[in-house]
Amino acid sequence: MLTRELLEKLLVAWPDENGISHNPELYNAWLERTRRYDARIIQNALGHERILALTDKQKALLEKNYQKLLSEKDITDVSDAEILGRYELITEHISPSVTEEIFAAYRKCKQIHWEMVKRCLA
Q1: Residues 67 and 88: beta-carbon distance below 8 Å
Q2: pLDDT grade, residue 79 (50/70/90)?
Q3: Would you give the DSSP letter of residue 1?
Q4: pLDDT tens digit sequence for 11-26
Q5: Is 10 exposed, middle or buried (0-12, 13-18, 19+ CB in 10 A)?
Q6: Which of 13, 40, 56, 109 could cross-link with 27 by S-S, CB 3.0 to 4.6 Å?
Q7: Where are the domains of the chain?
Q8: Residue 64 predicted with pLDDT over 80
Q9: pLDDT at residue 83 above 90?
Q10: Are 20 and 26 within 8 A, CB to CB?
Q11: Across residues 50-71, what is the average pLDDT?
Q12: What are phi and psi of 32, to 5 degrees?
């Protein structure tokens, strides 16, 4: 919870209509604190195992998805079920790990094939 003094300083530091802050250090520190808090809520909802199991592509997709969600809603209005639902959407439907592994194997085979063709033509 913000103290009255900090809230008053933050209001003064808030960027104006031109995007200029009178105290960018304070404002940026507050933004970072908010991002860390949001990340903790999401981490608690997902659990350590789910996060470690993510591929790089899934992480990028989830980060983008959660950023969109948090631009529309405050983290306090987001339920664990909503966080898990977006996780499942990404990891089971949009970019399943198995699909990524298949594409990686395909790319590797394709690369090996072209290297063999180049050797034969040389």
Answers
A1: no
A2: very high
A3: -
A4: 999 999 999 999 999 9
A5: middle
A6: 13
A7: 4-96
A8: yes
A9: yes
A10: no
A11: 93
A12: -65, -40
Q: What digits encode the pLDDT tens for the residues 31-56?
A: 999 999 999 999 999 999 999 999 99
What is the rounded CA–CA span in Å between residue 20 and residue 108? 49
* Sign of the torsion angle spanned by Cα atoms 74, 76, 81, 84: positive
Question: What is the b/e burial string over 37-48, where b = at least 16 CB atoms within 10 angstroms of the residue's CB?
Answer: ebeebbeebbee
| All residues at 6 or more sequence positions from 106 whose CB lies less than 8 Å from its CB, including other chains | none
Lowest-confidence region among 30-34, 94-98, 117-121? 117-121
Angle between helices 24-46 and 80-88 (to 10 degrees): 80
Output the CA angle 53-54-56, nearest 5 degrees: 140
Start-to-end Cα distance in the chain: 70
Which alpha helices (DSSP H) does the chain contain, by range?
Answer: 4-13, 24-46, 48-52, 56-72, 80-88, 97-121
